[in-house]
Automatic annotation (TrEMBL):
Membrane-traversing stretches: none
GO biological process: methionine biosynthetic process; transsulfuration
GO molecular function annotation: methionine gamma-lyase activity; pyridoxal phosphate binding
Species this protein is from: Aliidiomarina minuta
Gene Ontology CC: cytoplasm
Name of the molecule in the record: L-methionine gamma-lyase
NCBIfam families from the UniProt entry: met_gam_lyase (TIGR01328)
Superkingdom assignment: Bacteria
Annotated SUPFAM superfamilies: PLP-dependent transferases (SSF53383)
EC class name: lyase
Length: 400
């Protein structure tokens, strides 16, 4: 299922983003790898087909089981994250569900951060419970509470840092230590940071998941996911949950993400520079009562961020002093900035977590996680920062 690749161990991440997972020279000398837009692969003879299905011979069989374009993407993301192997999926939630369910059975227990993307919360709290998998959601910025949440049935720990939507930071290394003392695996959702800004593998993560819909692709034209880890764990995911539940990635989406990844390093740099300008502006707004951004020294997780993040990223959240109505007014009066969920695109996007991305949480769970009705989330794009700020400014001016 895999193909031979150049070794990328000595390359900088900027180079891996462009060359990682590269196949040997294309027979026609194509610079850009062809897209293997095919559902199935033709065998030389029946015996060969049998050997491939038996795992006795390398080679492709059927695109749900593996595809050369998808394999190249999997390898590139694995190399970027400093992991051995990757498995690509139809969506970020496809990656999270395939990863978690590959290691869980009825009666098992999961420790998860109480601040995570709304659909991850829905998956863990509603669906897992139906299958007898119990999840304890805990404020992982409280390490004592996190340690106390483990039981002798804990198999997996799930961390999202910075957390969606208000960027709570969790000490990955500390949580990895708790998990490993109890032979549990640590899964880190690195969507907000990308491998350029945070390397969970170096901090003890066993598996790293991404919504590739976001920065990895970066152009708002794909929904996709990927998980990376060691060879054995990734094989297990590929051969069980991903193969049999079937949320695999199409060659077309993989091809688009391979293209998007080439500019990930320079995009992240610009996203981060823009975000700093926007944060400066938001700090001066009386209508904003609280700003959540890990680059601010006032952020409760600032010290953790300094330790494990290379930059603060480009997602900003803020509470509107006058709550819900003024938040909606701000969103409705923007002209250039798009009112949409998702993040990590070239376009600056703004949304209202309580009624949109985090609506799957119960009101109680939202209250516990500190997601108020006046909270707004901004994904700072790649436009000129002056134009982003000008649009915000004119919309703030409409609020009485
Ligand atoms: C959003 N997020 O927040 P797919 N992990 C994280 C995420 O933010 C998301 C996913 C996984 C948003 C989507 C509407 C940290 C998604 C799930 O949407 O399944 O690719 O990723 O705006």
């Amino acid at each position: 299922m895999s193909h031979s690749t150049k070794s990328a161990s000595d390359w900088h991440k900027d180079t891996i983003a462009i060359h990682g997972g590269e196949a040997p020279q294309d027979p026609h000398g194509a610079l850009v790898p062809p897209m293997y837009q095919t559902s199935t692969f033709v065998f030389d003879n029946a015996a060969q087909g049998g050997r491939r299905f038996a795992g006795e011979e390398e080679g492709y069989m059927y695109s749900r089981l593996g595809n050369p374009t998808v394999a190249q993407l999997e390898q590139r993301v694995a190399e970027l994250e400093g992991m051995q192997a990757g498995a690509a999926s139809a969506t970020g939630m496809g990656a999270i569900s395939a990863t978690m369910l590959a290691f869980l059975k009825q009666g098992d227990h999961v420790v998860a951060s109480d601040a995570i993307y709304g659909c991850s919360f829905a998956l863990f709290s509603h669906l897992f419970e139906r299958f007898g998998i119990h999840v304890t959601f805990v404020d992982m910025s409280d390490l004592a509470a996190t340690e106390a949440a483990f039981t002798d049935k804990t198999q997996l720990v799930f961390v999202e840092t910075p957390a969606n939507p208000h960027l709570k930071l969790i000490d990955i290394q500390a949580v990895a230590n708790f998990a490993h003392q109890r032979q549990a695996r640590l899964v880190v959702d690195n969507t907000f940071m990308t491998p350029l800004l945070q390397r969970p593998a170096e901090l003890g993560a066993d598996l790293i998941v991404h919504s590739a819909t976001k920065y990895l692709n970066g152009h708002g034209d794909v929904v996709a996911g990927v998980v990376v880890g060691n060879q054995q764990d990734i094989e297990l995911i590929k051969l069980t949950t991903l193969k049999d539940m079937g949320a695999t990635m199409s060659a077309h989406d993989a091809w688009l993400i391979l293209r998007g990844l080439k500019t990930l390093p320079i995009r992240m740099q610009r996203h981060c520079e823009n975000a700093l300008q926007v944060v400066d502006f938001l700090q001066s707004q009386p209508a904003v009562s609280r700003l959540y951004f890990p680059g601010l020294e006032t952020h409760p997780g600032y010290a953790i961020g300094q330790k494990q993040m290379r930059a603060a990223g480009a997602i900003i959240a803020f509470d509107m002093r006058d709550g819900y109505e003024s938040a909606l007014q701000l969103l409705n009066n923007l002209k250039m900035i798009k009112l949409a969920v998702s993040l990590g695109d070239a376009e600056t996007l703004i949304q209202h977590p309580a009624s949109m991305t985090h609506s799957p949480l119960t009101p109680e769970a939202r209250a516990t996680a500190g997601i108020g009705d006046g909270l707004v989330r901004l994904s700072v794009g790649l436009e000129h920062s002056d134009d982003i700020i000008a649009d915000l400014k004119q919309s703030f001016a409409t609020i009485g």
